TrEMBL record:
Transmembrane segments: none annotated. This is Protein kinase domain-containing protein. InterPro entries: Kinase-like_dom_sf (IPR011009), Prot_kinase_dom (IPR000719), Protein_kinase_ATP_BS (IPR017441), Ser/Thr_kinase_AS (IPR008271), TPR-like_helical_dom_sf (IPR011990), TPR_rpt (IPR019734). ATP binds at K402. PROSITE patterns: PROTEIN_KINASE_ATP, PROTEIN_KINASE_DOM, PROTEIN_KINASE_ST. Residues 373-650 form the Protein kinase domain.
Amino acid sequence: MDDILRQEFNAGRELFLQEKYDEAEEIFRHVVEDFKRNRRADNKRDRRRDRKATLESKFWFGVTLSEQEKYDEAEKLLQQVVQGRDKSPGPDHKDTLWSKYYLGRTLLDQGKYNKAEQIVQQIVQREGTVDQNYNGMGEAKYKLGRIYYEQEKYIEGEDMLRQAARELEKSNGRDNSETLGAKDLLLATLRKLGEDSEAEKMLSDVVPRMESMKVIVDEDHEDTSKPLDLPQALDTDGPLLSSTEATAHQGLTGLLDSYFPNEHQDPEPYTDLTIRKISMLLEMFNIRWSKLPRTYIILRIIGYPDLLDRLIDFGFSDYWFPIGEQDLQDCLEPPIRAAFVNTQGLVCTNLLDLELGQGGQHCYFKQGEPLPFDYKAILGTGGYGRVHKVVSHTTSKEYALKRVHRNTASTGWQESAITQFISEIEILKRLRHRHIVKFVGSYTDLDYVGLLMSPVADMNLKDYLGRVAPSKYPELRTFCGCLATALEFLHARKIRHKDIKPSNILVNHGNVLFTDFGLSLDFEDADGSTTTGIDNGRTPRYCAPEVAELESRNTKSDVWSLGVVFVEMTVVLKGRTIQDMDEFFEGHGSGRKYIRTNPAAFKEFTTELEGIGESTDNRALDWAAQMLVVEQQKRPTASELVTSITSPGEEGEGSEFCGICCVSADAEVDEFWD
């Protein structure tokens, strides 16, 4: 690897370690492609050296893609690395073994359990002959145990997880998160095998060690903490059960009893942590009951625990809290209803305040208070934060959680990030539209400010355009009208998005939604929508000329950005790719890839597109041409654009460019969310 490529490679790896995966991906992609173009053939030594460097670059590239859940490409790259390293330096070398580990993890995350099993087994089967510098055998056995668990191969899983727990305890210590994670998964496996006595014994041994640990996905070592994503993971900020409790009570019934007052005691409010403990204990008795721990607590305190099945059959859940007597009149008798409602305050915690939004009230979690969800995956990484897929402990619903670190003392840039994020929260609270992500709740803890949103989308529009099949083109056409309608909604509420681009547009089950309002401007109290100055964070490909030139801008700047998106959607509808568009621009006009910097190429490219594909799709090009006029005042407003899209064309076509959800005037109705 020459000095320049080595510098690029090191820069990419540094970005990876900083969790800036988008930027790292771009660098690693360039390094790998550069090796393809510039293979040297001077002598065998050079070829061997280049081959090693190529595999190293592909390995980091593949792991970076896997972190972003771009599994198809990651899988192919890591397979190439495994095949190459199996030949040299050989199957026992640590680099080969780690390549197989990450390939197995990528396969597992896709649910390809059989393939994942075959790959990770290759690591475990080489125990005794592996490179002495390889220290990942315990992690590999843990991963294989998880694969067996997912395949319901509980007997094989029990043996593998016992080995993993022993080896991880020996290498990492008894209180290490990986050690405890392996034991927790072993505990779950024993439950599946009906070995309850050993599971109970293990519970009393493992749980006290959680006292000073937070066993969730460790963002700094996410690869080794992945097994803790399982539902059985002990996701707490403290001990599930203290060792004194374990010795004071014999059996799980005694442990459960310890959380309830006797006849001489007054009940105290329950914390989220205690409710979580009770839920996990209930899981060993009755799975149905474990899903409603708050309801169980209330019924037990008022003396009617056996009524829980009746409430479950009625459709009741912990998500109903807080509740009034009128909501229970069909399932509980009057005296019981009154007692139930009067007791619910014991279990209405910050968790419920967060998920129900409480009219936009921000929630605060103190030190030691657990957050009310499990981390499941990373959905994306931005300039100042990360978006996680999380699952609520209360409702089992999936949400997108965007977080920004509160460490504002480090740099002025971070202070700006927090300010933008708080602005995004305040803007989203005001918005409710079928084509805009939904605000669920927000919170602050000691480390982060968090924003909970819905839905967890299938993908963003950028990825969608790269993989959409022709059979989905009718769906893609409707995005024009739906996005225009959403933009009209924003502008009518005095909000400019300011960063419209495909990666900030989500696609979820055929529905398209604007997201990422971190740069948005609320001009409700301003003299008008026009502003000047620098727009930090703008995206050059999609920003309007006036934004790039730091001139006065207004809502028409959003219209330009959406116009570029319209062009890219039409490119795909015409059977071409965004890469085709970029290559055309590079070979025509000024040679630049952006529409605002290469208007001559845009004009030629539009003419070429008009002559291919469906002629009706040329309507989208007509709208885009109007939206991409350099003079702001000549561009249509979002409202005018909606009128154009929903009006019949010259040949009578019309509604195919707008979903039925937005053809009528009541596009703000909340049917999408209900």
